[in-house]
Write a structure and sequence with these properties.
single chain, 559 residues, alpha/beta, FAD/NAD(P)-binding domain, D-Amino Acid Oxidase, Chain A, domain 2, ten-stranded mixed beta sheet, eight-stranded mixed beta sheet
């Protein structure tokens, strides 16, 4: 007896069933035991304790600390998912670092941070976020998953997958760590293999998104202390610089060292290491020149001289080095009524800026869990799969303008000071409350709020286009002066974040969404006032489009 299966090398082959051992039946087989796969397995078992879940993880043994994977910074949705939906709050509080927000230094070519514009917090906001060591977290998730009854198999490499459209079980062929060929029957197959994308390639689902950017990264075995970079290069820093954010606390932020077309991340890890990455638009910076550690070091000597000095100090040798020539990607589909789905990076990924990776894992895993529940209950799986696909697609598409073509803004302190406040207002006003208050599946609420959600998306797209046009026309807009932009001192900004922690039912969330277009339009009006336009068509046209939306949503009728 033979069965045909699609192989990782792209070929179809006939396999003798008798040669495959352990045709074990499961309800769900997850390919890949990384962050997306393990969190999904845990969530499925928490919601459905009798569900038979198998995870096939290629790696044997525990994940290494520090040098395992990037994606080490979380924001509100991802942090809430890990801490409260999955119940990992104690682990995050005791085994990882609480993040001191995002911080930006506009210091291209300069050594003395205290002489440069700084954008960042002086205090924590209400919702805690974390700097996570991916290896440490994934090892803990593996322990939790096994404790919840997940069949997590290490050293298991998926080699072929046969999807059955008739309603019978799908089949996954995999190789164990001794080379034995095995077979799993499962009603659901979830691809959580990251960029390997077994199902994504099998079904030819890859799709570009028009966002070109690359990244190189590495870790060092000590913590960096940006607070102590004041006065580097012979300057005399203002003593107030050392205390305005609390003594020696900047290092706990996700620090961004910024210049035109690029940003550099500095992320501390609880293991005593620091993660460092360069993210750039190839229209501004040459990937080929940065794809080795020596090349990256030479680039840093020109663009971030103080970081270059730090990396030449004892104990700063790279523990690893990796790169991605093009990291942003899309998928034509991620959820199917045929009982398969793509989770995490196997499906879609936007950009490391603002750390949305764990957010989209959280949202996608929630939809996959509900699809499995719908299937078990005999519900309308076709309708649910299409609805969740539409919603997930809209969230991705509406966040994409935040990144697409926007890397020029990293060289402009005035533009980024506006953009960061705007982007967070959009995030905390729309997507975050829907997740925090468990409304991402609420069909009636989402249908009722469709016009408000569309208005927010239109305002966001218009704002991003205007900011880019303004930078193109006006340049960086201000000299390099040591001005501190502290968004945590903005009262309404703090309250918007704190509102996420407050209980809210469906009507409460609906009211918040109804208020969002007017609030965003009012903020846009203030931003337009702060930067008078130049009579140049390149800026005047996007300014006029944004102004028209502002007028519409701040009118008496809107009120």
């Amino acid at each position: 007896m033979l069965w045909s299966a699609f192989h990782l090398d792209g070929s179809w082959k006939e396999l003798p069933v008798l040669a495959l051992k352990d045709c074990t039946p499961h309800d769900v087989c997850i390919l890949g035991g990384g962050l997306a796969g393990l969190t999904l397995a845990l969530q499925l078992r928490q919601r459905m304790p009798d569900l038979r879940v198998q995870v096939l993880e290629r790696r044997s043994g525990e994940a290494p600390q520090a040098t395992h994977k990037v994606g080490e910074s979380t924001v509100e949705i991802g942090a809430h998912y890990l801490a409260h939906v999955l119940g990992l709050r104690e682990h995050l509080d005791t085994r990882h670092l609480r993040k001191f927000g995002f911080r930006f230094f506009f210091n291209d070519g300069a050594a003395d941070l205290s002489a440069c514009p700084e954008l960042g917090p002086s205090q924590h906001l209400a919702v805690p976020t974390y700097q996570i060591d991916r290896g440490r977290l994934e090892n803990h998730l593996a322990e939790r998953a096994r404790a919840h009854g997940v069949a997590l198999l290490s050293g298991a490499t998926a080699t072929a997958c046969d999807l059955d459209a008739s309603g019978a079980a799908h089949r996954v062929s995999w190789r164990d760590d001794e080379g034995g060929q095995r077979l799993t029957h499962a009603r659901w197959i979830i691809d959580a293999t990251g960029r390997a994308g077994l199902l994504k390639r099998r079904l030819q689902l890859a799709r570009g998104n028009g966002h070109a950017a690359f990244s190189v990264w590495f870790r060092i075995g000590r913590h960096l202390q940006p607070d102590r970079w004041a006065g580097a290069g012979g300057g005399t820093p203002d003593p107030a610089w050392f205390t305005r954010c609390g003594v020696d606390r900047r290092w706990l932020s996700t620090n961004h060292l910024c210049g035109s077309g690029y940003w550099v991340w500095l992320i501390p890890l609880a293991s005593g290491c620091h993660s460092i990455g360069i993210v750039a638009d190839p229209a501004f910076h040459d990937f080929e020149a940065l794809k080795t550690y020596d090349g990256a070091l030479a680039w840093l000597a020109r663009h971030q001289p103080q970081l270059h000095v730090e990396l030449r100090q004892p104990g700063s040798a790279p523990l690893d080095f990796a790169f991605l020539r093009s990291f942003s990607h899309d998928a034509r589909q991620v959820f199917s009524e045929q009982r398969w789905a793509l989770a995490g990076e196997a499906g879609r990924f936007l950009d490391p800026f603002y750390s949305p990776g764990s957010d989209f894992i959280a949202i996608g895993n929630g939809y996959i869990t509900r699809l499995v529940e719908t299937d078990r209950a005999g519900g309308d799986l076709r309708r649910s799969a299409r609805l969740y696909e539409l919603l997930f697609r809209s969230f991705y598409d509406n966040m994409l303008p935040i990144y697409q073509g926007q890397y020029a803004l990293f060289g402009s302190p005035w533009a980024m000071s506006q953009k960061v406040v705007w982007d967070y207002t959009y995030y905390w006003s729309v997507l975050a409350p829907l997740f925090f208050h468990v409304r991402l599946h609420d069909e009636r609420l989402l249908a009722d709020a469709a016009a408000d959600l569309q208005a927010c998306a239109q305002l966001n797209q218009a704002m991003q286009r205007w900011l880019r046009a303004a930078v193109d026309v006006q340049g960086t807009g201000m000299p390099r002066v040591p001005k501190f932009h502290d968004h945590t001192r903005i009262d309404w900004f703090r309250r918007l974040n704190a509102r996420l922690t407050q209980p809210a039912d469906g009507p409460d969330v609906r009211r918040q969404l109804a208020e969002a277009p007017r609030a965003m339009a009012t903020l846009a009006r203030d931003m337009l006032t702060l930067l008078p336009g130049k009579e140049l068509p390149a800026e005047a046209v996007p300014r006029a489009r944004l102004a028209a939306l502002v007028t519409r949503w701040t009118s008496e009728r809107a009120l």
